[in-house]
């Protein structure tokens, strides 16, 4: 709505209103960027919550006497997922971490050592290979 307001202000030759509406427009663009980043980070939380659901399912199955076993870690670095021990963020090499400049298809070992968890900021050393748990 601000571009239209600014256009009307220009038609009215109202300098103060033009400045105000253009400032509001710039602020709205900044806020949109912040919301896009937040939406992306909430998307990353999906993997974490799925991991937690898997852990609770495993605990429930153990209580019910169902045996579980860890799924063998992938031997293919191109598909091996890694998990942050601090927040449970899962790095998936097929997705990479584009916001941090890590292209899809980047194996974990190829990520620079100064990379950090996009959710909690933990160092790369905090990550361990992710092994999904399956019912035995
Ligand atoms: Fe993390």
UniProtKB/TrEMBL annotation:
Database matches in SUPFAM superfamilies: Rubredoxin-like
Cross-referenced Gene3D superfamilies: 2.20.28.10
Domain Rubredoxin-like: 79-130
PROSITE patterns found in the cross-reference section: RUBREDOXIN (PS00202), RUBREDOXIN_LIKE (PS50903)
A GO MF term: electron transfer activity
Pfam families: Rubredoxin
Entry keyword Transmembrane: no
InterPro entries, alphabetized: Rubredoxin-like_dom, Rubredoxin_dom, Rubredoxin_ET, Rubredoxin_Fe_BS
Cofactor entry: Fe(3+)
Record flagged with keyword Metal-binding: yes
Key words of the record: Electron transport, Iron, Metal-binding, Transport
BP-aspect Gene Ontology terms: alkane catabolic process
PANTHER family attached to this UniProt entry: RUBREDOXIN, RUBREDOXIN-1-RELATED
Similarity annotation: Belongs to the rubredoxin family.
Name of the molecule in the record: Rubredoxin
Source species of the chain: Fischerella thermalis JSC-11
């Amino acid at each position: 709505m601000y571009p239209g307001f600014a256009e009307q202000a220009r038609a009215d030759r109202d300098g103060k209103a033009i400045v105000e509406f253009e400032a509001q427009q710039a602020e709205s663009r900044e806020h949109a960027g912040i919301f896009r980043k937040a939406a992306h980070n909430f998307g990353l939380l999906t993997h974490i919550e799925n991991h937690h659901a898997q852990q609770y399912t495993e605990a429930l199955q153990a209580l019910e006497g169902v045996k579980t076993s860890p799924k063998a870690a992938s031997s293919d670095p191109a598909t091996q997922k890694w998990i942050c021990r601090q927040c449970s963020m899962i790095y998936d090499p097929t997705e990479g971490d584009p916001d941090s400049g890590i292209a899809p298809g980047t194996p974990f070992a190829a990520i620079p050592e100064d990379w950090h968890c996009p959710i909690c900021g933990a160092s790369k050393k905090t990550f361990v290979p992710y092994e999904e748990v399956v019912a035995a």
